[in-house]
Every structure is written in structure tokens, then in C-alpha cells.
Amino acid sequence: MAETEIETAAGAEDLIARIEAVEAKLAQAKASITRRFVGQEQVVDLTLSALLCGGHALLIGLPGLGKTRLVETLSTVMGLHGNRIQFTPDLMPADILGSEVLETAEDGSRAFRFLPGPVFCQLLMADEINRASPRTQSALLQAMQEKQVTVAGEDRDLGQPFHVLATQNPIEQEGTYPLPEAQLDRFLVKIDVRYPDRDTERDILLSTTGMVDEAAHEVFSAAELIEAQKLLRRMPVGESVVELILDLVRACRPDDPSAPDRVRETVSWGPGPRAAQALMMTTRARAMLQGRLAPSAEDVLAMAQPVLSHRMGLNFAARARGDSLDGLIAEIAESFTGTGAAGAAA
Questions:
Q1: 281 falls within a domain
Q2: Nearest CA among 232, 214, 172 for reference residue 72
Q3: Which residue in 55, 127, 140, 262 is deepest, having the highest Cβ count within 10 Å?
Q4: 242 is in which domain, residue-wise?
Q5: Which residues in the chain come in under a pLDDT of 70?
Q6: Which of 5, 116, 47 has the alpha carbon at shortest distance from 285?
Q7: Looking at residue 1, what is its pLDDT?
Q8: Cβ distance 44 to 37 under 8 Å?
Q9: Which residues cross the membrane (predicted)?
């Protein structure tokens, strides 16, 4: 065997061993989270996927479903310094980014000192993000994309890693400002937090209303999470999975030649290249969370809705008919993978 082949084999074995080690720690992290955030395994998986990919997540759910509890638990388990911002109509950009203040020294000299805002952390919870004005919402755009902010003409780096977990209430829309498409596209995934079933709700009652509340414990450190993010990018992806991602994303664009008639008649605007990048990353993350060494077509289908649904828009006629993007995405995916695969992944 040639020396380069020996090195390649050794490198592959090392990669497999490192992936398996991260998968074991992820299992511990998930177990710790689900002891406090009971019964919402899919929500936990999607949130962990966003962190593994180095991205941000938008959680959509009614009040009282545990979104804040989830973010607080994640901060502890993943070893991240977290901050929380309650978005309100009177919130200003400086309340998020920070500002410069003029200070007078003992000798009478004056100088500006920067007071960092809550965005300078590693895990930021933006609670009810759509209640702030568009000007304030836009203060997060640079932070989410470039991991830095510009205040008083100076670029300031944020924490490493940096993640935003934003929440929205889907029913109370009075006095809110819908997020623009450019900002929605910054979120890696959109996570629907739904009502628990009866058995899960019973477990929640028993675990949260007693004398002792389950405590989360640290499993990862910030440095270990960064290493896991780098390792995720080295996970191999088969050619068939890559082609399925491209087919699925391009089929959701109404002006693409490969788009089916249903999309042309229903969709006003479709996902861009960032959606394909997000789908590639999240399929790897799903495989890693499930203890596998490479993603499959089932992973692509399972991640299609959380990755694509907030990157598409229905036209007026489709909204009038009561069409849903989730149903349309499932229909498109089924056309590529068959009814059996669609049902398994759903």
C-alpha cells in the first residue's frame, strides 16, 4: 500500500472516531435537554441542528410552550454565555448593540467608552422578535450574517460561536412588524413548536410542578461546539444526496424550468442558494444527531420543511384558496422520493 493511501486511511479512521465521539456527546446533551424540555424531541433536534451548523433558528409557537425554557437549557448544556432580549415596540438598536458614552476622568480629560449591548454573547434569545420596529430588527442583520456589528464607525466582533434563537407568537399580530424576507433568510431553520400530546403534557405536569425541578448540566463547552461545527463540514455527502438537494430547491422556484406547474401556479418567490447551503448543512447535522456517519435522502426530506418554508412565499390566489407551504413542500418532495419515503420522513 502506498504511503499516501496509508495516510488517507488513517485520516478516514480519525474522522470516523471524532464523529462518533461528538455523536456520543450529542446524545448526552439531548438527554439533558429533554429532561427539562419534555416531549418535544423534534424541536430539540432542530435546535441542536442549528447550533451544530453554526446558524440561527426561528421558533414559532404560542405562549407557554416552553420556548424560553428551551433556550435557557441550551445555554447551560452547550456551555454558552447567553443573553435574552424582550423585543418591544419602543426597543432601539442601541438597546441591542450597545452605545458609546462620554466619560470624564479625574484629570478633567474626556473620552468615549463603549458599553456593549446584550448582543455581545454566544447565544442570544430574541423573544418575540416581530414586536420591535423594522429599524430595531435590522440591527440584528449584520450580527447574524457577519458575526460582528458596527457601532460608531468601528467594527466589533461578537462572541464565538454566536447564535440567535428568536421566537414569535403566530396568532397575536396586532402591533407587530413581520420580518422582511432578507432577515428570514438569515435563519437557518424555522421551528414550529406545537401543543404536546396528552401523555407528554401529563409528563410535563409531573416534572415541572413538584418540589424539585430537573436541572441541566454542561455537556459541551464553547470550544467543543466550535470543533463539532468544523467536524460537521468534513462529513461526507453522497452525490445522490447533493443532486436531491439541488432538485428539491430548484423545483421550489416558480421561474425555474424544472419547477412543476403546481409551483408556478402557487409560489410567488422561491428559495435562493442560501437555502441549498442550509439544506446541505442540516442534513449532515440530522445524520450526526442520529448517530450516522453520512446523510441520506431521508434526511433531505425531513429537513426540507424547516429549511424551505420561511424562504418561500405563496401568491395571492394560493393564500385565498387556503394553500399551505408545508403541504406544497411535502408534495414536491414526494414527487422526487416516492410516497413511501415521504411518509417515513414526515
A1: yes
A2: 214
A3: 140
A4: 235-346
A5: 1-10, 172-175, 211-213, 337-346
A6: 47
A7: 42
A8: yes
A9: none
